Fold this sequence. Notes:
By secondary structure, this protein is an alpha/beta fold. It has 2 domains: 93 residues, Alpha-Beta Plaits (2-Layer Sandwich), CATH 3.30.70.100; 156 residues, Oxidized Rhodanese, domain 1 (3-Layer(aba) Sandwich), CATH 3.40.250. The protein contains 8 helices and 14 strands.
Amino acid sequence: MPNNALPILNISAYKFVGLPDCLALREHLFERAQALALKGTVLLAEEGINLFLAGSAEGVRAWVKALQEDARFADLAPKESWSEGVPFRKLLVKVKPEIIRMNHPAIRPDALPRAPALPATTLARWLAQGHDDEGRPVVTLDTRNAFEVDYGTFEGAIDWRIAKFSEFPEAVQAHREELLGKTVVSFCTGGIRCEKAAIYLQQQNLDGPVYQLEGGILKYFEETGGPHYQGACFVFDQREALDAGLAPSTEIVRPASEAHREASAQALRAKVA
């Protein structure tokens, strides 16, 4: 069955944009999503929006269309996938200090120039040829938590086994020499973490270009079919992990360590409860 023949549309999207009115916006977005019988999580902060929603295609697209009527979100382009059932148990719209926590207040993608975004097709080509277009060695840097990486990642990707994204800056300082003089491509599930990670990396004088993978792993799957990626991509809902066709994976390899299995279970409970 083609993915889009399934009844439930799942979307994920984010945007770094100044939202001084996020408290008032929360009420509006919650009421609209509730009226359309959507479930999932929407995070708001002064730095932007991060959302994961599911429901009927008609309801999801009506909610997105209403959101895009706000000029700040006019260019929001959600990533879509399909499932048999709704992978969330309820609707949450929360206001947070950050839409993705890094604990580095100076790293504000809504106020700083965006790091260059690398198209999925370009990364696939670079990985196939073993270098970038200037002959420089390419390293892929996984910015996700260790338990997520255990489900799957790019072949040869650097994984510093961080337990949470706020540990990323410290890990960079400890492993900086691994990146010197190379083309660094940071990546994550949907792109939000590498927005901040790439800006931070640009500030470290690594003597080489720094990119973020446009749209993250999920966009890479959508546009390339997943060459040079091993395993599945963990997602924070009841589907648990997606394969390169953006369908729930039937061959999940769960984290080997008990600690990472528990981290995975906690992450799923936090998102779907």
